[in-house]
Specification:
Layout: H1 3-7, H2 12-15, H3 22-46, H4 51-76, H5 80-99, H6 103-120, H7 123-140, H8 145-225, H9 231-261, H10 268-279, E1 282-286, H11 294-314, E2 320-326, E3 330-337, H12 356-366, E4 370-375, E5 383-390
Helix pairs in contact: 3-4, 3-6, 4-5, 5-6, 5-7, 6-7, 6-8, 7-8, 8-9, 10-11, 11-12
Amino acid sequence: MTPEAWTNWPSREALSREGRGGARRWPARSIRTLVLGALLWSTFSQRQVYGWAAVAAVAGVFAVAACVWAFYRTTLRHRLWPSVGLLLLLMGGAVAVQQAGFGVPAVVLWCGCAIVGMERLPLAAALPATLVALAGYTLVDSGTWLTTAITTGGLVLGGYVLRLDAEARGNAQRLLAQERAARAAEAESAALAERARIARDIHDVLAHSLSAQLVHLEAARLRIEREPQGPFRDQILERVVAARSMASEGLAETRQALSALRGEMAPLGEYLRELATVDAAEVEIAGEPRPLPAEASQTVRRVVQEALTNVRKHAPGARVRIRLTYGTDEVALDVCDSGGSGPGPAGLGASGSGYGLLGMRERAELLGGTLEAGPGSPDEKGFTVRLRVPA
């Protein structure tokens, strides 16, 4: 046995009750209840105790229970001297009980101290404490020397077996925790690899396609502008400019989606301010900003994008106010507009990303949140989108 084995504590997993199933907890609870009941029964059956003596006896039993509970807590925290002090206090209580004429409770206390000391203390402290407890038991035992020797040996062996069993349980619990952590890390690594693959595919297909469209649309715009002015030329130019604007927005959103997949998203407040600059919207952030889960952050971003797109389509010229509120266990988003003055740019009202209010609501519900959209109040012309998601 190495020198460290004498000074090392049993592991916290071994000393705690975590990892014990119901099949193991019920016997332990039953044993503790039986021991407490045996102490009470032996106290009152060994001698006739009445009045204040009975009250003192009951108080003593519960004081012993409190000391045992405190011993379990201090050993769990690996505090040596408080643990040894409590064990010595229990042995002193056994001496007092023995002197008062209650032999059975004293024997129970000495045997219990021997077992729990061997089970929960470092061996360098457990062996002396156990020997002291068993010496007290030997002095009051009225049996033959062979019976006493067998009993003391059995108590030492029983405490050590309980110690080994607890260590085995603690080791199993640590291995299980490590396996769960390894599986979680493996799943996270696989998810990151899959997200990186999807990001590469989106970049290679969609981003390149949109970039090529922007180049051709810009070339078409420049070529059309060199033509003589006229109704047909102006109409074609307006359509090309609108198509270029939508392709540019699609490319920007694609890049944001790629950043989200790679975990490189800008802070939410910064993103809202950048987005509001394009639409001349007001941004207000309440609460203490904090990093949000990727799903919640992405949902807030998509809802803001869709709400601002709807304002451009159906309420051009409206004043827009974006309010983001960080709550204790949720984040709230309100996008309000003051109502527009006319139809949007040509072709924009019929365009769309295919997401819409229904898609926003479904996305929020998948996260356990809610989304409401409708008039802000009966006296206002504007429209309000309210999002609440756990975060």
